[in-house]
Amino acid sequence: RAKAQGPGGMEIYTEALGRRASQMLTLRQKIRRGLDAGEFIAHFQPKVETATGRIVGLEALARWSTADRGLVPPSEFIEIAEEYGLIDAICEQVMTDSCRWIRDWQAQGAIPVPVAVNVSGRQFHNSRLLLGQIRSALETWQVSPDLLELELTESSAMADPAQAISVVTQLKDMGIFCAIDDFGTGYSSLSVLRRFPIRYLKIDRSFINGVSHSGEDAAIVRAVIAMARALGLSVVAEGIETSAQWAFLRQEGCDQGQGYLFSRPVAGAVIAGLLQTVFVGAPQVGS
Ligand code: C2E
Ligand code: MG
Ligand code: MG
Ligand code: MG
Q1: By the 8 A CB rule, do 167 and 189 touch?
Q2: Where is the EAL domain (predicted)?
Q3: In angstroms, how far is the first alpha carbon of the chain from the final one?
Q4: In angstroms, what is the span from residue 7 Cα to ligand 1's centroid?
Q5: What is the mean pLDDT of residues 132-136?
Q6: Which of 238, 241, 245 has most ligand 1 atoms within 8 Å of its beta carbon, as the pocket-test mutant?
Q7: In the chain, what percentage of residues exceed pLDDT 90?
Q8: How confident is the model at residue 6 (pLDDT cuts 50, 70, 90)?
Q9: Ligand 1 atom closest to Cα of residue 258
Q10: 209: exposed, middle or buried (Cβ count in 10 Å: 0-12, 13-18, 19+)
Q11: Atom 15 of ligand 1 has which residue's CA nearest to it?
């Protein structure tokens, strides 16, 4: 906060503000240059099927590959990029990189699994641009649309549901399925949710965290699974870190899980090998 007392207070305040503003501007310029250099890439985290322990999907997560700072995580650039109108360009690079890898894994003889790319709510304002980018990425790398999915957070889906439903419907018509991400952290009206032609819900990590020790989290997760069933949707749990959490989710009939327990997000180059892994169920671990 500003040091408001004393005659010099105001100056100190504006100085601090000015410093922050110039840092933001510098970051914006760096992102622009990073975009020009094609520095935004995708890493991939597996989605594991509860019933079989097989990898049945991947989530693409943006990474900024810089010469001086190495791999920069999304927490350091997504919000800023949204603010400065650069998110579409970043998403395009992540999507194109994902399609390039899908093609590469196919060439290596890996079993194809769908890759889900995250989109921000802002990208739904300009759906023409988004749909155009998707078409061109698929075409460039000759990837079938059923191998690409999109994840949209619950809060962006519910910010303007009519618009989101329209875009999700157009995507579905193109053969691309969507998921609602971070479910439980937004405010879904069930009557609106049922109108979304989505394929699955991803239960937010914050609820998965406590399932093995908090009765409340366990009850919430059970309720989400039951609700998804009623709506004919699959459920994916994100942020699984322990075998106790995995055991709970398997027992409750959650369809898929994702988390550090199986794998952190990794570079595309190691995915073809990773896809062959079968994760044994929690009850068998260590026995
Ligand atoms: P998200 O889509 O909910 O992705 C899951 C995040 O949780 C990822 O963080 C992932 O690395 C992390 N995670 C996965 N398993 C675990 C676990 O077991 N424990 C913990 N503690 N974390 C786990 P990441 O890669 O840093 O991404 C953060 C967020 O940034 C994403 O959350 C997503 O909202 C956003 N993001 C990432 N890539 C993109 C993108 O290409 N476009 C847009 N618009 N947003 C993106
Ligand atoms: Mg996601
Ligand atoms: Mg998520
Ligand atoms: Mg999340």
Answers
A1: no
A2: 24-279
A3: 56
A4: 46
A5: 97
A6: 238
A7: 84
A8: low
A9: 15
A10: middle
A11: 259
How many angstroms does the Cα of residue 265 sit away from the middle of ligand 2?
Answer: 12
Confidence (pTM): 0.93
- Looking from the CA of residue 94, the nearest atom of ligand 1 is 41
SS (H, E, C) 108-152: CCCCCCCEEEEECHHHHCCHHHHHHHHHHHHHHCCCCHHHEEEEE
Residue 15 Cα to ligand 1 midpoint, Å, equals 34
Q: What tokens does 81 get? A: 């990029």
- How does pLDDT run across 12-63, given as a tens digit for each residue? 677 787 888 888 878 999 999 999 999 999 999 999 999 999 999 999 999 9
- CA-proximal residue: ligand 1, atom 30 (nearest): 74
For ligand 1, atom 23: residue with the closest CA: 239
Look at residues 130, 129, 195 and name the one whose alpha carbon lies nearest to residue 157: 195
Residue 53: φ, ψ to 5°? 75, 10
Which residues make Cβ contacts (< 8 Å) with residue 251, sequence separation at least 6?
none
**pLDDT tens for each residue of 192-245:** 999 999 999 999 999 999 998 889 999 999 999 999 999 999 999 999 999 999
pLDDT confidence of residue 286: 40
Residue with tokens 């998921």: 179
Under the banding of pLDDT at 50, 70 and 90, the label for residue 282 is very low
Of the residues 90, 118, 262, which should be mutated to test ligand 1's pocket, given the most ligand atoms within 8 Å of the CB?
118
| CB atoms closer than 10 angstroms to residue 204 | 22
